[in-house]
Design a protein that fits this description.
The structure holds 2 protein chains of 2 kinds. By secondary structure, chain A is mainly alpha-helical. Helix content of chain A is about 60%, strand content about 0%. Chain A is globular, with a radius of gyration of 11 Å. Helix content of chain B is about 45%, strand content about 20%. In chain B, strand 14 (about 520-530) and strand 15 form a beta hairpin. The longest helix of chain B has 25 residues, at about 140-165. The chains are: A mainly alpha, B alpha/beta.
Chain lengths: ~80, ~625
């Protein structure tokens, strides 16, 4: 379950930031991904929300700063 | 394959196709990805690829500007990806946040320098008349009236100013009603209702659009209602990032815009070509007959009537209807003419191809007969196989993806932007009868496309197994139900199949077919009996879902190989013609059998196993598994 979830999140990160899948790791973050700016961060949040049918609070949106954190957040919300 | 793996694989295929410059493959896979998972993630993947394909594909270009009072940026990639499915390529300018008025009034604004073909005005009531949105409870009726008049006067001035500076189409979102009226249920009792004030504004908008050429109203209030007003909103995100729409709603905004952009780009469908069995009615007319097919006012036949009603609505918009189906023509025509549940009549169809040819060919013929380009045809079929055959064999045709649930067929048609029209002429309304008269006159030549390429893409697998306790019920059912591809039409009960299996010298085989779209289950049956030197084919049948895919040859090749291995010298079988089994009439001849004798209408066919070989087509993977005894 977490494996599939992690892969889905990595796919979204890869799509939204235009980074190849095999470059996306658990610790990929705005520090390591050059294209991770504020507008794309919103796109990322929306893509995760749409994929998992969730709605995040502004506080949660701020917490989504790495692949690992997003996976964990989605996991607790599902 | 797990969905997330399939999803990653498709993206790899797209990347590969683009780097290898195989443009058709790249576009087809992008379409497939978008059909599978339309959403923000795949849109973000697809949008940059469209820019790399631009220039190599025949795309309709459209310059679109959005003037807005809220965040719309996340809609743009979704719009680009969705538009690509209609081969529309968008250049997009998004105006500054809440600067819509300056952009329209200022002749030197970025809007006019962009030279748009289309301008969308997406503004909320909270921005143009905050008092109606937030302070309604303390407003005097006169102030309500003032607000309504002010908003409509503002739009009138905007339109007038815009028309002096641009000839672009102007699409204006109407105003969305609040989720909750300030007065609660009282709102519907008082004279100055808040919800009605919004409706008054929207009525004024409609009047202004009718009086100004090239100005159109997008019924945003209806869009929100259609998808659920409560679920549509995301207030938290509005306060945080200015986006009032929940993530799942963004694609609906993109699709609603597309209903205007597609007709403005000219990429419309002029005719809708439909399948019959399980599309226009439930069931298979060749199997279920007039009394067995589902079509009427009650469930489940009502789903098909709803589709027919949607098609009638299209024909009133001037869109032609046509039929392309695999049926015996007499049976199909009888249903079209006489079935009580039919809302559409034969005269409603401008062209018909009811035969056993490939559908891409039927569509080419219809295109020639109606003198409408293939790129102006839309195709509707419940069967994913046929849809893919058309996508491969006639890639210009717009293939509509039908959901699995027939109750949603009508919506799939009504939602398709290619059927939208922004104006309607008298001709449009008369077109239906015009074509019906011309139908008999034209005859088109038959066109061919490569079959092998399509079949290879399908990755078909035929899994052949001796009868097992688990498969006997399905085998018996197929012998009882199958009328079309059935060489002898011998009917067996479950009990009889079990007895045959127990007899020495008899073989009962089932064939399961899978392809890249999924598992069709057991769709083929063969029963053979060894008689000295001869292996006698007692029964050979194929469910109508897999006719025309060469899987019968896979099954026959296995029978031939096994018979030879058991020391038989000849394969023999009867073809017993019935009213319905024309699709199987050429089977033995095409497989290399010789007609040995005739007995009345019946023909006996022989294949010499010592001389000839029956090969499984190399595009079908043949798996043989031992069924084990009973």
């Amino acid at each position: 379950m977490t494996e599939a979830l992690s892969q889905q999140v990595r796919q979204i990160v890869s799509d939204v930031f235009g980074v190849p899948m095999d470059h996306v790791r658990e610790d990929s973050s705005p520090e390591t991904v050059e294209t991770w700016d504020s507008m794309r961060h919103l796109n990322l949040v929306l893509a995760v929300e749409e994929k998992f049918n969730l709605q995040f609070t502004p506080e949660e949106m701020e917490q989504m700063r790495s692949v690992g954190q997003i996976v964990e957040l989605v996991h607790t919300r599902m | 394959m797990k969905p997330e793996e399939k999803s990653a694989e498709l993206r790899q295929e797209i990347n590969r196709a683009i780097s290898e410059q195989t443009i058709e493959v790249a576009s087809a896979r992008i379409d497939e990805l978008w059909r599978r998972e339309p959403g923000p993630s795949s849109a973000a993947f697809i949008a940059p690829h469209i820019e790399r394909l631009r220039g190599q594909l025949n795309l309709a270009r459209l310059r679109m500007a959005v003037l807005r009072s809220y965040t719309v940026e996340p809609v743009i990639p979704l719009l680009r990806a969705a538009a690509f499915g209609f081969r529309v390529d968008l250049e997009v300018h998004v105006g500054d946040y809440n600067a819509y008025m300056q952009e329209i009034l200022d002749v030197n604004s970025p809007l006019y320098r962009f030279e748009p073909d289309v301008v969308i005005v997406a503004v909320r009531l909270a921005d143009v008349a905050p008092e109606l949105w937030q302070e309604y409870a303390v407003l005097e009726p006169a102030a309500v009236q003032d607000a309504v008049e002010r908003v409509s006067r503002t739009l009138e001035q905007m339109v007038a100013s815009f028309r002096q500076r641009s000839r672009a189409a102007l699409i204006v979102h109407n105003m969305e009603q609040p989720v909750h009226a300030a007065l609660g249920v009282l709102d519907s009792q008082v004279e100055a209702s808040q919800l009605e004030s919004v409706q008054s504004i929207n009525r004024e908008f409609r009047r202004i659009a009718r009086q100004n050429r090239g100005v159109y109203i997008l019924n945003y209030d209806n869009l929100v209602a259609r998808h659920g007003r409560v679920l549509w909103q995301d207030d938290r995100k509005f306060f945080a990032v200015g986006l009032p729409i929940a993530a799942h709603g963004l694609i609906h905004v993109a699709n609603e815009w597309l209903r205007f952009l597609v007709p403005l780009s000219g990429r419309v469908a002029k005719a809708l070509v439909v399948d019959l069995d399980n599309t226009l009615w439930g069931g298979v007319i060749g199997e279920d007959g007039m009394t067995g097919i589902k079509l009427g006012v009650e469930y489940p036949g009502a789903a098909y009537q709803a589709l027919q009603r949607a098609m009638l609505d299209l024909s009133r918009r001037g869109i032609l209807l046509a039929i392309c189906s695999k049926n015996n023509p007499q049976e199909a025509m009888e249903a079209l003419q006489k079935h009580q549940g039919m809302l559409l009549k034969p005269a409603d169809f401008a062209a018909m191809r009811i035969n056993w040819h490939e559908k891409s060919q039927g569509l080419r013929e219809i295109s020639a007969e109606l003198n409408i380009g293939l790129d102006s045809l839309a195709f509707l079929d419940d069967d994913p196989f046929e849809r893919e055959q058309v996508r491969t064999g006639a890639p210009d045709v717009l293939v509509i993806d039908l959901p699995e649930d027939p109750m949603r067929y009508a919506s799939a048609v009504r939602d398709c932007p290619a059927f939208e029209r922004l104006t309607l002429s008298v001709e449009d309304r008369a077109r239906r009868s015009m074509y019906a008269k011309e139908r008999e006159r034209t005859r088109a030549e038959e066109a061919f496309r490569s079959k092998g390429e399509f079949f290879r893409y399908l990755r078909q697998e035929a899994e052949i197994q001796s009868a097992t306790p688990a498969s006997i019920a399905r085998i018996a059912q197929l012998t009882q139900k199958t009328n079309q591809f059935n060489v002898t039409t011998r009917r067996y009960s479950e009990q009889q199949v079990a007895e045959i299996v127990a007899n020495t010298g008899w073989q009962v085989l089932s064939m399961r077919v899978k392809d890249r779209f999924g598992d069709h289950g057991i769709v083929g049956v063969a029963i053979t009996r060894d008689d000295e030197e001869v292996c006698e084919i007692d029964t050979f049948l194929l469910s109508c879902r897999v006719i025309g895919r060469a899987v019968e040859t896979a099954l026959l090749s296995h029978i031939a190989q096994e018979a030879a291995a058991r020391g038989r010298k000849r394969l023999a079988g009867w073809f017993v013609p019935t009213k319905m089994n024309a699709p199987a009439a050429q089977f033995y001849a095409q497989s290399g059998f010789e007609c040995q004798t005739k007995d009345g209408e019946c023909q006996r066919w022989i294949f010499d196993l010592e001389i000839g070989q029956i090969r499984c087509p190399d595009w079908i993977r043949l798996n043989v598994s031992e069924g084990g005894g009973i």
